[in-house]
Design a protein that fits this description.
- InterPro entries: CheY-like_superfamily (IPR011006), LytR-like (IPR046947), LytTR_DNA-bd_dom (IPR007492), Sig_transdc_resp-reg_receiver (IPR001789).
- GO terms for molecular function: DNA binding; phosphorelay response regulator activity.
- Pfam families: LytTR (PF04397), Response_reg (PF00072).
- The longest helix has 22 residues.
- This protein is 30% helix and 34% strand.
- It has 2 domains: 126 residues, Response regulator (Rossmann fold, 3-Layer(aba) Sandwich), CATH 3.40.50.2300; 103 residues, LytTr DNA-binding domain (OB fold (Dihydrolipoamide Acetyltransferase, E2P)), CATH 2.40.50.
- With 240 residues, it is an alpha/beta fold.
- It has a 5-stranded parallel sheet with strand order 2-1-3-4-5. Strands 10-9-8-12-11 form a 5-stranded antiparallel sheet. A 3-stranded antiparallel sheet has the order 13-14-15, with no helix packed on it.
Length: 240
């Protein structure tokens, strides 16, 4: 099983550090970031593939339960494990379809049970969630493309240019809308009328001049973003 990309969200630094130490016993779980301000979660979700979130509930900036809906808008497949010192949130957490619920202080035994359950669940759905190879037709040839190898798509009439992260380019004999449907939806985002990018390729987004910077074969390129994308971007990031 590949690494489970994980972020930890809690306004208490000690809680973040303790949980990180406990999770270090599980090599499959890769802690990407520890976040003390819950609003900082959205830049990570927009630019990184996240599989699992340990989310505190009772935080002063925003309640973890209230944060769930916006998190799902960014990543509908992410597993969420709620962590709190208050057991009266359990029913609310279950209603919001969280994967599990842990009480603070998190015990090694309870975490072990939860992680075991998580790994089993991920193994069962691995076939459905794992980025599958996609067959495309390019200049009369059938080519196998890995979704994670794609930097972005660019529409050109009934054809689509596929720019790969290694710097190469393919021309697919298909409309971009039809082609993109074959790829994992949660991994790609439409930044303008004719361009869809892989979120992992994004380095930064400049709202003022409406530009998106991507990394392509160790080089950086700029692509224009639409007003619609900018509006959605601002909404997701709470206009920060």
């Amino acid at each position: 099983m590949p690494n489970i990309n994980t972020i930890l969200v809690d306004d208490e630094q000690d809680a973040l550090d303790s949980l990180e130490i406990l999770l270090s016993e599980y090599p499959q779980i890769k802690t990407l970031k520890k976040i003390s301000n819950p609003l900082d979660i959205f830049p990570v979700l927009m630019t990184t593939t996240v599989d699992l979130i340990f989310l505190d509930i009772n935080m002063p900036v925003v309640n973890g339960i209230d944060l769930l809906e916006k998190i799902r808008e960014c990543n509908s497949n992410v597993k969420i494990i709620m962590v709190t010192a208050y057991n009266n949130y359990a029913i609310k957490a279950i209603k919001h379809n969280v994967f599990s619920y842990l009480l603070k202080p998190v015990s090694r035994a309870e975490l072990k049970t939860t992680v075991k359950k998580l790994l089993k669940s991920l193994e069962e759905i691995d076939v459905k969630t794992k980025p599958n190879k996609v067959l495309i037709t390019s200049k009369g040839n059938t080519i196998i493309v890995e979704p994670n190898d794609v930097a972005y798509f660019e529409a050109e009439g009934n054809y689509t240019y596929i720019y790969l992260k290694n710097g190469s380019k393919l021309i697919a004999s298909a409309n971009m809308g039809v082609l993109v449907e074959k790829f994992p939806k949660c991994e790609f985002i439409k930044i303008n009328r004719s361009t869809v990018v892989h979120k992992n390729s994004i380095i930064s987004i400049h709202k003022k001049n409406k530009k998106c910077v991507l990394k392509l074969n160790k080089k950086q390129i700029e692509l224009s973003v639409s007003t619609t994308f900018s509006r959605e971007f601002n909404s997701i990031f709470n206009n920060v």
